[in-house]
Amino acid sequence: MEEEAASIRSKDSVRLQATSKEDEEAEVVKAGKNLIEEEKAAVGGVKWAVYFYYAKSVGLYMTIGSILLYAGFTGFQVGSSIWLSTWSTDPMASTDIPTRNKYLSVYGVLGLLQVSYPFCYVAMHVLKLAFCEIITERVLCLRPFRLGLASFFYE
Q: What pLDDT score does 147 carry?
């Protein structure tokens, strides 16, 4: 009788183990089905809060400088296109050498100014990094001297 009870218990435990394994496999399958979900595309434009977050992260001077440099670049690009269309419609530009040189000189200056704006943008970022390095050096290197802790480093 005890053997029958023990075998029933062992069969029940095997059945419980099998059930728990099946449940785990079912959970894994359910989890696997939910791993890939259909993506939803956002509709509309970028919220102003995102622009303000980026502007705050970069800083006021870098934001204003970037906007001004971009406006200048775009202005010279548009001016260059307008000047080129004016030059191409002038009948004297192909025959009169001083007129051609005038158009060519102005177009060259507009092109140089247009190219100089990205260099100014990069220079602005390099100067910001250099300024941040100077501040970091002062904070990290000079603070021990101010606090009187420098003697520990040199003893």
A: 62
Judge whether 80 and 110 are in contact, CB under 8 Å: yes
Alpha-carbon distance 145 to 25, whole Å?
A: 64
Give me the torsion for CA of 31, 34, 35, 36, rounded to 10°.
160
Tokens describing residue 141: 């290197």
pLDDT at 138 over 80: no
Do 103 and 84 form a contact (C-beta atoms < 8 A)? no
Q: Give how far Cα 54 sits from Cα of 48, 101, 123, Å.
A: 10, 45, 20
Per the structure block, which two tokens stand in for 119?
A: 């260099």
Other beta carbons less than 10 A from residue 58's beta carbon: 15
Q: What is the DSSP letter of 91?
A: G
Residue 3 and residue 13: Cα distance in Å, rounded?
Answer: 15
pTM (predicted TM-score): 0.53
Our measurement of the distance from residue 87's CA atom to the centroid of its chain's CA atoms, rounded to an integer in Å, reads 40
CB burial readout 79-113, b (16+ within 10 A) else e:
ebeebeeebeeeeebeeeeeeeeebeebbeebeeb
Query: Residue 125's CB: how many other CB atoms inside 10 A?
Result: 14
